């Protein structure tokens, strides 16, 4: 199953990722093809039209996407997180309807961040109010990955004493999506800022089970995103390792292969170690998810923290080893170098991950 | 611990004890059945998610839609009541 889906990815992305990075855009038909063929949210259960992949299998598929194209993988993370959010917080009717759409070719983005609410989601200013049997959504969202392509926006806002998530069609009156022109990394992932001006929707657009405290809602939704980002980082590391090892084997300087120069070999050893340790952390977190072990939330934070840091470090090593051979926009290693830095920022910055992990460690003190 | 430990024979007392054990293990606090977990500040959002998953796994229930509210997790007693409500619903369903 994973192999078949990975083949769909390889066939759809082909050698085009570099061009997409330069143009800042993935052709919409490519994304819709990936969506209808089940790649973008492959963990959705079969009863809702998905592929029913385990977290481990979905993780390997995500890493595969990460090897090919960081932007495509980002869209996959968004779609998967949207689907997970619906699966977790929707009622039966919402799950059947929305997951059917997300596995049927529609694209989705999750809108959490605002200018004043990044790490601190409690500062969210977007409001979701019930009025005359409808809901009204008002607010401004920033840096929503994949929103430029999305048919459906899952918008988190203040609702009553807590928070909630509304499923907002991008075509609804009052919704304005503005693509961010030049993101540092994942340049074709469709990052966008979004204005929601008195967007009126049927009441059942509010995910029934999402009426929770902001932090809890964020944690549950983001746990999927963290695991997905972490696997994406594993993919970047694998791409860098493959390109770097091929280069040091084939290129000669001072009369022998680069790999025979000890200082170069050390970079390769470190790159290999970064890829392996990131993989192990991701496998561990995915297994916790699949067993539904309570520590899945903190394992996902650990995996994301380790993998994003390793990807940033590993991509920098790969650029160092390959020098001019990789120092050009569009090159797989140059893309990883820029994309990996973003991974240290999204779905919980490395510093937020550190705070969570420190708290977790302190809780374990007898 | 899996749901089979409680198959058919779960008592409120056993459920309360199991939840209290888990909470005390993870938070290193002593919890009374009616103490507000969230007001205490001892429960982080990460831990709240763990709690949801733990309750689902331990008692073999699925908490979603209307049941996934903070009120249902506010105290040990509230969680026990929710578990029994969900189990009764599953038997009827």
From TrEMBL, chain B:
Residues 9-87 form the Carrier domain. Pfam families: PP-binding. This is Carrier domain-containing protein.
